[in-house]
Design goal:
The protein has 118 residues and is mainly beta. The protein is built from one helix and nine strands. It has one helix at residues 102-112; strands at 4-5, 12-19, 22-29, 35-40, 59-67, 70-78, 84-90, 93-100, 116-117. The protein starts with a strand and ends with a strand.
Amino acid sequence: MRDIRFRLVRGLKSDVGTDVDYKVTRISAKKSDATLRIWHHGVFWGVPRAGLFEEPGSVAVTRAIRLDEIKGYDVRVTTPNRRVSRWVGVFHTFMVYEGADPESAKKFDAVMDTICWH
């Protein structure tokens, strides 16, 4: 099973808990209600949830990522009102934020772009 290591950037705080019996790390932007969730060994199989693409006029950019023999995805969606969602996942482990303002999204992206899968 894979796990994730990451580095927090200034303006973010984190806590670890459970959600549906799975370990989840929640990273919050201090001045926003946006939350980045990191699911450790979750039940999902590397496919972003369809709801990320439901708002009309949204623009999605998807790129495949690989870790060893495992294929995953990095999907970033921007809505017409400039809200941002991003999903990055490999096998049973993934991270996601939804509907973040551009400033919070930039901070969350800084965490996601420096992840270390192990």
